């Protein structure tokens, strides 16, 4: 019997086992990681597009939160609206676009003596935004940071800050009056990946989620 042949066979078998282990680990990649990688890849591709194919834009928006953990039960049934302000910037081509958005919602968890709360989001979104004359309907999805802050001042002070990875999905309509200025209506949904922690207590199976309706202007350049 040739020991070199046996040793070579064992090495091949060990290599095969290690390769299978690597393959299994590769297939265990989380959906959130694939979403992040896909968002970044498309964003880089759009960001490096030539000016003839993509135009930059900036869009301030104002609206209110509803559903989920927000104070309003639904989009239409909302008596106690909590304001949400945001600004987005990015680039749009004839079909695809990319958007970075920063949004801030004060008093997100309601008003009460000694209670202060807010939600800050920073999202990177890929947009499907076909150009149909002066009107551009769009859908978007992305991933980013959801930061919650709760400050309760009674006999003592309790403060909670959460920095969580989250995602958003939504859509809307853009209408331009000329080559550069238009109006925009936007509806989107936010959801965190991790459980919410309030005043040092982790709320099991409670991941921050809510919807947002907003409107504003958009300027292309």
Unreliable stretches covering 5 or more consecutive residues: 1-29
Radius of gyration: 23 Å
Range of strand content: over 45%
What is the β-strand count?
10
Q: What share of the residues lie within helices?
A: 10-25%
CATH architecture: Beta Barrel
Head-to-tail CA distance between termini: 77 Å
What average pLDDT do the residues reach? 78
Which terms summarize this structure?
eight-stranded antiparallel beta barrel; alpha+beta; two-stranded antiparallel ribbon; Porin; 52% strand; 221 residues
How would you describe the overall organization of this protein?
The chain has 221 residues and is an alpha+beta fold. The chain has one domain (3-220): Porin, CATH 2.40.160.20. Helix content is 19%, strand content 52%. The protein has two helices and ten strands; from the N terminus they run H-H-E-E-E-E-E-E-E-E-E-E. The protein has helices at 3-27, 31-47; strands spanning 55-66, 83-92, 96-106, 115-128, 135-153, 157-176, 181-192, 196-198, 201-203, 209-220. The strands form two sheets. It has an eight-stranded antiparallel barrel.
Strand and helix layout:
Blueprint lengths: L2 H25 L3 H17 L7 E12 L16 E10 L3 E11 L8 E14 L6 E19 L3 E20 L4 E12 L3 E3 L2 E3 L5 E12 L1
Antiparallel strand pairs: 1-2, 1-10, 2-3, 3-4, 4-5, 5-6, 6-7, 7-10, 8-9
Could you provide a short overview of the structure?
With 221 residues, the protein is an alpha+beta fold. The protein has helices spanning 3-27, 31-47, and strands at 55-66, 83-92, 96-106, 115-128, 135-153, 157-176, 181-192, 196-198, 201-203, 209-220.
């Amino acid at each position: 019997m040739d020991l070199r042949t046996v040793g070579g066979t064992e090495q091949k078998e060990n290599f095969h086992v290690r390769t299978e282990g690597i393959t299994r680990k590769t297939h265990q990649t989380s959906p959130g990681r694939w979403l992040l990688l896909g968002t970044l890849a498309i964003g880089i591709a759009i960001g490096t597009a030539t000016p003839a194919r993509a135009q930059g834009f900036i869009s301030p928006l104002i609206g209110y939160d509803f559903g989920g953990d927000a104070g309003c039960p639904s989009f239409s049934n909302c008596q106690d609206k909590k304001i949400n302000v945001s600004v987005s910037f990015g680039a749009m081509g004839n079909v695809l676009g990319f958007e970075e958005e920063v949004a801030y919602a004060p008093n997100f968890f309601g008003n009460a003596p000694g209670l202060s709360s807010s939600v800050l989001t920073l999202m990177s979104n890929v947009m499907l935004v076909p150009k149909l004359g002066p009107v551009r309907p769009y859908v978007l999805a992305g991933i980013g940071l959801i930061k919650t802050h709760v400050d309760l001042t009674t006999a003592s002070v309790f403060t909670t800050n959460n920095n969580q990875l989250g995602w958003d999905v939504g859509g809307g309509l853009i209408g331009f009056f000329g080559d550069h200025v238009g109006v925009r209506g936007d509806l989107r949904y936010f959801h965190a990946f991790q459980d919410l922690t309030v005043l040092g207590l982790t709320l099991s199976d409670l991941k921050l989620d809510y919807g947002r309706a907003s409107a504003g202007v958009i300027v292309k350049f």
